[in-house]
Amino acid sequence: MTARAGYQASRSAPDSVVAALGAPACPDAGCLTRPGDLAEGCAALLAALPYPAALLGDAGESIAVLGANEEFRRFADELESSTPPPGEARPGRSFDWRVRARAMFAARRASDRFELEFAGRLGARVFSCAMTWVEDAGGEKTLLLTATDRTSERKAESTLRKELLTDSLTSLPNRVGFVEQIEALVEERKALPQKTGHAIIALDLIRFSRINESLGAMAGDELIITVARRVKSVLRAGDVLARIGGNEFAIFAQINHGLSELLQIADRVRKTFETPIRLSNYLISVEVALGCALAPDDDDDDMETLLRQAQAAVKRAKKSGTLEVYRAHVLREALKRFTLENRLREAIEQGALTMAFQPLVDLQTGAVKGFEALARWEDPVIGHVSPVDFIPVAEESGLIVPLGRWAMCECAQTLADWDRRYGELMPVTMNVNLSPVQMVRDNVPRAVEEALRYAGIDGNRVSIELTESALISDPDKTRQLLGALQAMDVTVAMDDFGTGFSNLASLQSLPIDVLKIDRSFVVDMIGDEDKVAIIRAIVSLAGALGMETTAEGIETREQAAALAQLGCTYGQGYHFARPLPPLDAYRYWVARSSETII
Ligand code: C2E
Ligand code: MG
Ligand code: MG
């Protein structure tokens, strides 16, 4: 019966090869439908019994194995007492039919189905297997194993699947492929120790159908391919680009620095379309609408929703003509800004802002050389607001102009008050921050001149702090402004130096007196060779250009000493004093004017 069962099985599945396990119990071999295959399969099976991977890897379409009972029992006993040969185990796969046989044998189950994967000579081979106990009239049990080669089916399935997930024109993922891919990415990243955010940027080509209509579908296809290439060229490794519709693309980006990083990526994408695309004899200016959606938190993994949000933003971008960020997020932000802006306007009008003054100390002598004026805002409703938060709102809303003018007047007035209190001119200078937005919108020389005149203060007692961005945005205007300030004897300091992208040539040609070394270089400088090297380079650059240096954010005695040793002229930071109210600052100067505290 046992051999017959195998024989029958082979008939019903003509591609099967049937082998009898356990020589010489292979009596029916000659009766089989495909003796050639049998001979090969049987011989290979028997020879490779301890290593079935080798056997199946080389076998034909399928194999059926009939276990002779006695032989099998011995085999099963052997299995029970042995462990799988090393190197055969593959996680997640039924790697060894003997192990399955043992499990089935132990559990007294009648049958089992599983899949085997082997590395064959021509790559991975997949077999779909079934095991069954076959019982003859005498109650003798034998094991029947059928292994059918599914390799080509699996290959076809995977090719088909790839095709289903890919846009054939650009070879980018399509919408389904995109969502599947980015869901897997987000899942993978969840396991990483450092948390990151993510966002989707949706991009629509505007009036794309016109290209198809006027130049033909081939030209349209070419345009799509070029667009895909251009966008891809400005993305970072790890970003995913997809074509999610006829004229729609989507970008998945990992975001570590919030909205500003996302906007930077979107801007890079937008800029890539500034150059027209050439299609045969035509130069086509491609217009795109961009919409972004930032996942609300790190663990948010609903990529379908995020994609829909980005598409909703793109819809609005088509109307507004500018980049749009998904509304819920934008609304929250806008509402916050709106409240802040209204409260700030009120605070400026009612004179509710105050100034704090932080000493600037000569690092060689310890003498207080001057103060930096820093705006402070304590709102009765929303509480303390940092300048880091309200200066950008002031810049965006235009409130920076009245704020900046107020700051200038307040500084000049404070100096005049201190002089009165001191009884003569106090030998200190006052640094005032000037926003690049005010430089563009206001007549700064006039505002400075009026403030000085009104308070009766000489220009040489005031220093204006500019940021590097002011040099970049409008170099000519900056040159004019600095010339006008120089004419009033007002000195100029370059704030947060080292964080921007100063053009060294313009630095040399502009009348700048002091480079303020950004706090980020000072903060961990002790023991950090790179930071020390940067500070040394800035100090030597300043020296070469005839400028002085002020180190910002000094918090420890060691930093002050190290900076003094590096030749830095002045220092500012919590180690000396926090920004102080006007009277405290005056008293600080009086108390320290004769001491050295470094
Ligand atoms: P900034 O001009 O670079 O001012 C230095 C900032 O560093 C101040 O922050 C100061 O409090 C802080 N700081 C000083 N020493 C230390 C230190 O040892 N450790 C640490 N961690 N921080 C230190 P603040 O007052 O929050 O001001 C932030 C920024 O806001 C300023 O940076 C400036 O760019 C802007 N700002 C402040 N007041 C005005 C203003 O009246 N007009 C304009 N346009 N901008 C202003
Ligand atoms: Mg400053
Ligand atoms: Mg600074």
List keywords for this structure.
598 residues, alpha/beta, Beta-Lactamase, Alpha-Beta Plaits, TIM Barrel, 3 domains, eight-stranded mixed β-barrel, five-stranded mixed β-sheet, 23 helices, 21 strands, elongated, disordered N terminus, binds ligand C2E, binds magnesium ion
Structure characterization notes:
The chain is of the alpha/beta class and 598 residues long. Helix content is 47%, strand content 22%. The protein has three domains: 16-156, Beta-Lactamase (2-Layer Sandwich); 165-326, Alpha-Beta Plaits; 338-590, EAL domain (TIM Barrel, Alpha-Beta Barrel). It has an eight-stranded mixed barrel, surrounded by six helices. A five-stranded mixed β-sheet has the order 1-2-5-4-3, sandwiched between helices. Strands 7-8-6-11-12 form a five-stranded mixed β-sheet, sandwiched between helices. Helix 19 links the parallel strand 18 (491-497) and strand 19. The longest helix has 23 residues, at 327-349. The N and C termini lie far apart (101 Å). The model is unreliable at 1-64 and 79-95 (pLDDT under 50). The site of one magnesium ion has 4 residues, from strand 18.
Topology readout:
Blueprint: H1 2-12, E1 16-21, H2 35-47, H3 52-58, E2 62-67, H4 69-81, H5 97-107, E3 111-120, E4 123-135, E5 141-149, H6 151-165, H7 175-190, E6 197-205, H8 208-215, H9 217-234, E7 240-245, E8 248-255, H10 258-271, E9 277-279, E10 282-284, E11 288-294, H11 303-320, E12 324-325, H12 327-349, E13 354-362, E14 368-379, E15 383-385, H13 387-397, H14 400-422, E16 429-433, H15 436-441, H16 444-455, E17 462-467, H17 468-473, H18 475-487, E18 491-497, H19 504-509, E19 514-517, H20 519-522, H21 529-544, E20 548-551, H22 557-565, E21 570-571, H23 582-592
Parallel strand pairs: 1-2, 11-12, 14-16, 16-17, 17-18, 18-19, 19-20, 20-21
Antiparallel strand pairs: 2-5, 3-4, 4-5, 6-8, 6-11, 7-8, 9-10, 13-14, 13-21, 14-15
Helix pairs in contact: 2-3, 8-9, 12-13, 14-16
One magnesium ion (MG) binds at residues 372, 433, 465, 495.
